[in-house]
Design brief:
This protein is of the alpha/beta class. The protein has 9 helices and 11 strands.
Length: 323
């Protein structure tokens, strides 16, 4: 039985909106499942992309409000197109036919009932590759349980454990509380398992984006991982913070978020990985660059080096041969 969209109680916002009636919730979405793009993506962690790349589906809308969101065009500005369940299932199958190692659902916390139904249909029609849940972790275990039977790998963020930062940058002072509960639930449901080719087919990868000027937040996340998730999950430390928006400056004495992570901060984070004896996972090298940033107004949102477009909200499958 799926949690209803009306009144909507799918996420911690508990906004109570009648999304089935066509109204939009905090996430900016009605009950319609809207998709912005699908591609074979090569910018994820090695055991996810393998040799074929990750079949990434970008879902419109979001239940957070991150001021520096790299996907703000689809999370906050409405880009995307509604897809019926049958069309979504077909999209998953096309990604599989095109060589994707998995189906990677990006930011779907507000669309769980629709996604669960779509994946179930795709499974019944021959989808056999793993399905990944790529989320902010600002979600409820009760809602995640709707998807549990169709998911293989969880890929949650752990953005911060500091309520003040959750309030200031993610518009969610309760983010730490809910993210911790959600991730602990994920760790109970999936253990790390790889196939013969060292592709991750079950488990959890916890991601953390390092924010310039806020290293104490990162230290807290690393310590939490060492104490609560070491040996149960992989850690992915991302150094790719990019000041994509001009309105995230705030009080200079508290940090401005208007620059990249610097060398000193990078080296400090690596030192903490040693301090906490975290050895299972990944960290990005420090290479400030904007070449990887997506533009979802383009049929090819990412550079060809990072991905291959399969479907786009403007052109459908026009970017590949008729599937």
């Amino acid at each position: 039985m799926c949690t209803p969209y009306t009144p909507c109680t799918l996420c911690p916002r508990n906004c109570g909106t009648d999304r089935l009636g066509g109204k939009t919730g905090y996430c900016g979405e009605t009950a319609a499942l809207r998709i912005a793009a699908a591609c074979i993506h090569r910018g994820e962690e090695p055991p996810i992309i393998g040799s074929g790349g990750s079949g990434t589906i970008f879902i419109s809308g979001c239940n957070l409000g991150c001021g520096f969101c790299q996907n703000h065009q689809i999370s906050q500005e409405g880009m995307g197109k509604p897809l019926p369940f049958e069309a979504f299932a077909r999209l998953c199958l096309v990604l599989q036919q095109q060589g994707a190692e998995n189906i990677n659902l990006v930011t779907g916390s507000h669309a769980v009932p629709a996604l669960a139904r779509g994946i179930q249909q795709a499974r019944s029609q021959g989808l056999s590759i793993p399905v990944l849940w790529n989320s902010s972790a600002y979600e409820l275990p009760a809602t995640l349980s709707i998807m549990e039977s169709v998911l293989d790998v969880y890929l949650p963020d752990l953005k911060t454990l500091d309520p003040a930062l959750g309030d200031r940058f993610f518009n969610a002072p309760d983010y730490p509380e809910h993210a911790e509960k959600a991730i602990l639930w994920m760790l109970e449901k999936r253990r790390l398992r790889f196939n013969e080719a060292q592709r991750l087919v079950s488990g959890v990868i916890i991601r953390h984006l390092v924010l310039p000027d806020y290293l104490e937040s990162t230290k807290g996340v690393l310590q939490w991982f060492a104490e609560k998730a070491q040996g149960k999950a992989l850690l992915s430390v991302m150094m790719q913070y990019t000041p994509v928006r001009g309105d995230i400056h705030g009080n200079p004495s508290q940090g401005r978020l208007d620059r990249y992570v610097n060398t000193q901060e990078y080296e400090q984070v690596l030192a903490w990985l040693d301090t906490f004896a975290i050895t299972q996972g990944f960290y990005q090298e420090l290479a400030p660059d904007t070449g990887w940033l997506p533009d979802f107004s383009r049929i090819q949102p990412f550079s060809s080096e990072h991905s291959r477009a399969i479907w786009h909200w403007k052109e459908g499958y026009g970017v590949i041969a008729d599937p």
